């Protein structure tokens, strides 16, 4: 794993604090040698579309972007009208952390959050909410889309069967589907399935494929499976100011990310460290892991004095709203591809010092 970052690593706040993978930086340097066509007509962008089609085993249109917020918001804007609604989990990133970007891009469509244990929705809850909205007629925003997070905001994962149950309900109810895959690679290696199994084959129309949290400098991709949406999304991206003229510098990052299993190896390493961290923390008095650890996030309930001790020692992490029915102090710890096992062990060991 890369070792350019300082060790022992004290920052467990996010996988956005990481360095960029050396292979991705090298790809950028290579892309900087010659001139290329602009606005996505370059050889890197063309090769990227072919590579993504190969990985997902289907025809795709790939729109490279720079931020997850823009990618999610742009995708959702194509799925709903201003008087319509997007359904999601009540803790979904689109709901809690996008500063109204989905509403802004869609000119006012409403996000409706639904409950669900471990950050996952259930099809029965979706169907009930949609049927109620339809029964209210013009007095209620009308259902148009479903967005799911993979992995979820609680670090849990939907299986292919979970996704298919939800998307079958959504499509039967006339909703289009989107997957926020900011940590798609982490979910993928946990499940051990193919990318197609948890995307279009599971009924997903649009995928926000994240790379920045897992090794890219700044690169995401909107992967369009439903080709009837592709042309409109190209215009929406341009109108929103997210069509890069020097697109090759985004596409080169994504190509390197998807070459030689870099994306999977990075995610596998981060996931393994999260498992190691959760197992170590579980041995500490008064510490309890409060969600299944299925990706690279660990949520723990810990004594206030221990949380203060870690912060005094220089560790960084986020306080997190406790799950329903729990009153203790919960924190989120995130592992990443550029962490070392010794970083994890040092945090655990520091609790007894």
Structure explained in plain terms:
The protein folds into 2 domains: 22-257, Aspartate Aminotransferase, domain 2, CATH 3.40.640.10; 262-350, Aspartate Aminotransferase, domain 1 (Alpha-Beta Complex). With 353 residues, the protein is α/β, with parallel strands linked by helices. The mean pLDDT is 95. It starts with 21 loop residues before the first helix and ends with a helix. Helices cover 39% and strands 16% of the residues.
Count of discrete alpha- or pi-helical segments spanning 4 or more residues: 13
Number of strands: 11
Could you list the spans in which at least 5 consecutive residues all have pLDDT below 50?
none
Spell out the CATH superfamily of the largest domain. Answer: Type I PLP-dependent aspartate aminotransferase-like (Major domain)
The amount of helix comes to 25-40%
- The assigned structural class equals alpha/beta
Kindly report the CATH topology of the largest domain: Aspartate Aminotransferase, domain 2
CATH architecture of the largest domain: 3-Layer(aba) Sandwich
Spatial strand arrangement across the major sheet: 1-7-6-5-4-2-3
**How can the largest sheet be summarized?**
7 strands, mixed
